[in-house]
Amino acid sequence: MDIAEGLSAGRSALARGDWQGAREAFSGAIAFVPSAEALEGLGKACWWQDDQAAVFEAREQAFRLYREAGDALGAGRLATLIGFDYADYRGDLAVCDGWLQRAETLLKDEPPCEEQAWLYLYQGFIVLMFEDDIERSTERIEQVVALLPALKSIDLDMMTVGLRGLLAIRKGDIATGLRLFDEAMTAALDGEMKDLVAVGNLSCTLIYACEAIADYDRARQWCERTREFCKRMGLDTVFSICRTYYATTLIWRGEWEAADTELTAAMRELEPSRPSYVQDSLARLGELRRRQGRLEEAEALFSQAGPHRTALLGLASMAFDRGEMTEAIDLLSRVLRRVGVEDRAERVFVLALLSRARAAVGQMEEARVLLHEMGELSGLVGTRPLAATVLATRAFVAATAADWPMAQACFEDALDLFEAAEARFEAAGTRLELARVLQAQSRRAAATEQAMMAQTAFGALGARGGFEESAALLRDLSDGLAETSSAPLPNGITAREGEVLWLIAAGRTNQEIADDLVLSVRTVERHISTIYEKLGLHGRSARASAAAAAVQLRTNT
Q1: Which of 10, 80, 139, 398 has the most neighbouring CB atoms within 10 Å?
Q2: How many angstroms separate the CA atoms of 173 and 37, rounded?
Q3: Is pLDDT at 21 greater than 60 in this prediction?
Q4: Within its chain, how far is the Cα of 477 from the centroid?
Q5: Cα(93)–Cα(100) distance, rounded to whole angstroms?
Q6: Cα–Cα distance for residue pair 498/296, rounded to 1 Å
Q7: In this prediction, what percent of the chain has a pLDDT beyond 70?
Q8: In contact, 188 and 203? CB cutoff 8 Å
């Protein structure tokens, strides 16, 4: 294979996603005579293999050869890529800026070209994502827009559409931003775009934007499409970065085993070349462990993640659950100082817990001020998770002030929204809080029904803490129910079935009922099936309805 054949084979391998084949072909060409073109191709192949050291070596050599040849376009193109690599791989923003400035100097006297457009795009992306500078980012994107008509590049067109979408979301025009993103992602994943690096960057940017406004359903839809695309094209590196965001959507939907798999895989794949991304995965895995009730593991993971905002929020949640409100408030205040208003979802979640903590220590006016800010942010974004979070927080503050009707109404509305958003953990927690509010109003049967449904949901998720809290509330609500009673039972329920019914209302599992009554689990299950039939109960809520019926019966007698 001569030099020309090696270059041709390398280009073909890149086009079909054969990164190792491309690497071998370009390396073969370089063995004859090192050329800037072959080194540039080698750098791209190594980038897809996530071989950081090889990427920098190949691209910096290519840059030097382009400069020696007086090729300003080639040198400017490589300087742009190298600058982005320093930001992406290492977070070295000063070095990144140096390379991008070098690219701008090299390209400034050239006629309008794609190299200039990509430089402006990357500059706009970096100042927005790393520096939160909306004004400078907008200026750069406008420069790209001015070049597009002459360049006629679908890759540049759609990347620009995507970044305009991100800017719109950051500026508060959520609907416009999401429409732009949806268009760009359709072009990216349906094969219109040819630059796979641009496709990868666009995909991760969209998922990040969805997380910033808690649009988890849109993130899930595009994550699944991106994953299919990456699998088809062999783009393991792209989804390694995106899968950390994808795991958040899985955690939200209660698909915890899948989330665990994604986060573990992401850490394994990113550790060698992108250690800065691992902190994010550690923090999110810690949040998953917290929800599961595996608190020692959660605390260890949060500690490993260092001062990551998600880790600090998780530690604050644990302090709140322990009743250590001063510690929770300190941690939340620290996080809030680091969360910009453009990170609307994260800010609402932090404000929600801080408002609860303030209310818990009697700082009601401060809690209401925080609630007002949450409401404004949620109204701007308009996603169900944020609206539900505001309602649940308002309910908690109302319950703290013993305004039971307001608390009940807000918890009920929050529950409806959480369930519509498929937020299983949040919905179960809201049911448990609603049960406590109903208990405070002496509505034991209704409280028992909600607590039973919460316990079932927590059990299905594998959330130990929530399951135990629900069980404790059920024991309190059913105090005395399991005692023998001479009261007549409805619908022909026998004395033995009545004993089973009282124990259901006390929150006992089938195994616990069997142990208490010295029966087999199968016999208990037959009794429960008969009870449901006699009471006319069906579906997933039958157990909760049976428990409520037991409480109501005993209350009436």
Answers
A1: 10
A2: 42
A3: yes
A4: 36
A5: 10
A6: 41
A7: 95
A8: yes
Contact 446, 438 (CB under 8 A): yes
Render pLDDT for 487-513 as a digit per residue (tens, 0 to 9).
Answer: 566 777 887 887 788 788 877 888 888
Interior angle at CA 334, CA 333 and CA 340, nearest 5 = 90
Torsion of CA 507, 512, 515, 516, to 10 degrees: -10
In this structure, of 189-198, 330-339, 415-424, the range with the lowest mean pLDDT score is 189-198
79-112: pLDDT as tens digits: 999 999 999 888 899 999 999 999 999 999 999 9
Which pair of tokens denotes residue 349? 């979640």
- 139-148, Cβ contacts within 8 angstroms, sequence gap of 24 or more: 141/167, 144/117, 144/120, 147/112, 147/116, 147/117, 147/120, 148/117
544's CB contacts (< 8 A; 6+ apart) are: 448, 449, 450, 452, 453, 456
Q: What is the pLDDT of residues 149-168, one digit of tens each?
A: 999 999 999 999 999 999 99
Q: What's the CA gap between 495 and 512, in Å, rounded?
A: 18
Residue 234, pLDDT > 70, answer no
Q: Which of 239-243, 262-266, 331-335, 404-408 has the lowest mean pLDDT?
A: 239-243
114-147 per-position pLDDT tens digit: 999 999 999 999 999 888 889 999 999 999 999 9
Query: In this structure, what token pair is assigned to residue 182?
Result: 């949806």
Task: Indicate left, alpha or beta for 490 from its phi (over 0: left) and psi (-120 to 50: alpha).
Answer: beta
Determine the length of the chain. Answer: 557
First to last CA, the chain: 94
Q: Which amino acid is present at 346?
A: E
The answer to whether the beta carbons of residues 377 and 347 sit under 8 Å apart is yes
CB half-sphere exposure, 517, CA atoms < 13 A? 28
How far apart CA 252 and CA 19 sit, in angstroms, is 35
Q: How many helices (H) and strands (E) does the chain have?
A: 29, 0
Q: Which domains, and CATH codes, for the chain?
A: 153-270 (1.25.40.10), 490-556 (1.10.10.10)
Distances from the Cα of 268 to the Cα of 197, 237, 240, 273, 544, angstroms: 22, 12, 9, 10, 42
Q: State the Cα–Cα distance between residues 445 and 438, nearest whole angstrom.
A: 9
In the DSSP assignment, the letter for residue 130 is H
Distance from C-alpha of 357 to C-alpha of 362, rounded to nearest angstrom: 9
Residue whose token pair is 């503050």: 397
Contacts of 165 (CB under 8 A, 6+ apart): 176, 177, 178, 179, 180, 181, 184, 206, 209
Distance (Å, rounded) from C-alpha 166 to C-alpha 153? 20
Q: Which residue's entry shows tokens 């998953």?
A: 288
